[in-house]
Amino acid sequence: MTTQATLLSQVEAGIAWITLNRPQQRNALDIPTLKALHALLDKLNADPAVRVLVLTGNGKSFCAGADLAEWAEAEARGALESYGWTEAAHALMSRLHSFDKPTIAAINGTAVGAGMDLALCCDFRLATQSARFKAGYTGMAYSPDAGASWHLPRLIGSEQAKRLLFLDELWSAERALAIGLVGEVCADQQLLEVTGELAARLASGPTFAFAQTKQLMREGAQRSLPEQLSAELAAGLLCGRSEDGAEALRAAVEKRTPHFIGR
């Protein structure tokens, strides 16, 4: 295991586990943490040994969002609009959203503001029964600034997104599941086991094809259907020419389970 000041990371059996490690601050995101996480994602995305990414938190919170102590210090010196948190957060959210490999948010506790947005950038969201979700923006007389206004309408619809954002309600894990904010809820003590099972299934899959699929889904909303079909054709050709594509065909002919290597 490698340790940074605010992050723990470990790669095992193709699964990269990242743990936000500021439990005393409820894993709030200050600028050093944002930049360290961004750099770590760059490293893991380029590592062929990494086939799946899991993001979780240490302690009772997944992530409390922006570090308000850092925010207050910036305001005290008259630098609130220029101290760089928003720019660093936006770069991180874009990096996580565009990560080539499947990503899982293992939400171990409260996810607020940019902490909720971190989870929204992941492909899969698993939450404990004690997890709670809160936008946190309008409660501070602020508008969303880390992607919530983009993700939430797409995930849960415009009206429910406005309810969460405008009223700043604290949603339970069960409500988040019912509305589609998360995909699965499990007992608190089972989070790592359930997450590990999903991650292992993804890690054994054709991760090159997963990357092509993620890109198609990210970019598809900006295309017409004919444009998307053309993009699917191009991606399909790449997949068919990949080593995993050849292995899938051999395995089908030989009536066995394929062994994918991610290229």
UniProtKB/TrEMBL annotation:
Pfam families: ECH_1. One of its GO terms (molecular function) is lyase activity. Keywords: Isomerase, Lyase. SUPFAM superfamilies: ClpP/crotonase. GO terms for biological process: fatty acid beta-oxidation. InterPro entries: ClpP/crotonase-like_dom_sf, Enoyl-CoA_hyd/isom_CS, Enoyl-CoA_hydra/iso, Enoyl-CoA_hydra_C. PROSITE patterns: ENOYL_COA_HYDRATASE. CDD domains: crotonase-like (cd06558). It comes from the Bacteria. Belongs to the enoyl-CoA hydratase/isomerase family. This is Enoyl-CoA hydratase/isomerase family protein.
